[in-house]
Amino acid sequence: xxxxxxxxxxxxxxxxxxxxxxxxxVYKPGDRLPSEKELCAIxxxxxxxxxQAMMGLAGCGLIYIERGKGTFVAGNKPELIDYKVSRRxxxxxxxMEVGLIPGARVLCGMExxxxxxxxxxLRLETGARxxxxxxxxFINQEPFCITTNYFPAHLxxxxxxxIDEISSLYDFLDKxxxxxxxxxxxxxxxxxxxxxxxxxxxxxxxxxxxxxxxxMTGEDGTVIQYSVTRxxxxxxxxxxxxx
Amino acid sequence: xxxxxxxxxxxxxxxxxxxxxxxxxVYKPGDRLPSEKELCAIxxxxxxxxxQAMMGLAGCGLIYIERGKGTFVAGNKPELIDYKVSRRxxxxxxxMEVGLIPGARVLCGMExxxxxxxxxxLRLETGARxxxxxxxxFINQEPFCITTNYFPAHLxxxxxxxIDEISSLYDFLDKxxxxxxxxxxxxxxxxxxxxxxxxxxxxxxxxxxxxxxxxMTGEDGTVIQYSVTRxxxxxxxxxxxxx
DNA sequence: GCCATGCGGATGTCTATACAACCTGCCCCT
DNA sequence: AGGGGCAGGTTGTATAGACATCCGCATGGC
Lengths: 243, 243
Hints:
The structure is a homodimer of 243-residue chains.
Chain A: H1 10-23, H2 36-43, H3 47-60, E1 63-66, E2 70-73, E3 81-85, H4 91-97, E4 102-113, H5 116-122, E5 129-139, E6 142-152, H6 169-177, E7 182-191, H7 195-201, E8 209-217, E9 223-232, E10 236-241
Parallel strand pairs in A: 3-10
Antiparallel strand pairs in A: 1-2, 4-5, 5-6, 6-9, 7-8, 8-9
Helix pairs in contact in A: 1-3, 2-3
The structure holds a DNA duplex (30 and 30 nucleotides).
């Protein structure tokens, strides 16, 4: 099982061996692997060596480890959700159209002074008053993405007082302020989540994140919304049409 | 330095402490941290514990470890390269416009049978002959992205024989085949690289990747190109305009 | 029936030690 | 002066053992 004279470290050989077993279906998603102690006996190595291999595999996302319970083969990668982005993207419609159940929760709403990045995107002076609205969106009850929206405060007076009424953001903006934002551009990046986002999205800190920044204008061309959305990388496939 | 009664594991406290020191500029990018043995003495813990902390920090990309030499604070994050994607994106033009030096190398060219995903995107039958052309692109001499292009074989006869002539792909396609691909849609995902891509892009396997899939049509509307591009997550910010 | 307690098994953390592999610079020999 | 080789420092791997913490289940008392 382990060739002690191959010149390859034991834990790497273990990783390769177990990865193969998973690929060959010896262990299926959700199956429990032998406990660390059992693996020690199987491979004739120290528990520390076993752990090094397990940590490596867990880092790759092939397995997950639950304290007090055991190590398990990671589930089949959840089906990627194809999220279409267009000039007027509406989360709720978007998700319902493909037969999934959308959900949303306001995480945070407050009026703040715009930092440079926000002010620049909203075409305001640094320090101008803006309304920050952070929303967590769910698909089939599971966290999918977090969006931090910024609006110029003078365009959305009293938004914070009505925060409980928000279910569909765009319906809300249209109804109360007559605003119909249209996307002008988006940028895409792949990074890692900060501790807060990781906890909120219920992913580990070394799962990748797809970050989309967007600016929206009103019908008169003024920028009325700037948003930063962090999508779970393991769930999201974002598509953009060029037509 | 380490509170042995805080209930927080030593290695996590160490990670936090060192992270703060780096953030505060006690250690600057490129600086060598104390050796593991020295850190043992400083924090009064076992070398194993020190290593656990170092591994964690290295995993986050805050430091990098060189065997036989030491551990160093990772360089300032490389400036993100803003890569604009539009209907007709041309890598070389794109990069030169922002004052950077583009480069490209063909990694692999061959004629293969289309698997389902490729065939579907090219509107062909599964198993149809397609030309696969994999290119590595550089910015300022450093690997930036890998693109795997697929073309229907009947549209690009003899492409493989002329492979050495390719410098700008679109110039090449236009000159030899009169093809002027136009992007119809793109999808964006955040994942991790496979071993090959990681090595080619010179990143570790736990750096995130931004994967963009695109389909291109010719002037008559038929699909003539399907491509999958893996961008280095630490370098790339891809922007799309909706105009 | 129901909750509490405890036990065994699992992973999490930490210490101590040893040797291997790699890098650098110094010293010595030519 | 130049090259080879050795010494010492650094990280990489592996072993052995100990205790902590968490989970699930069974047992027992109410």
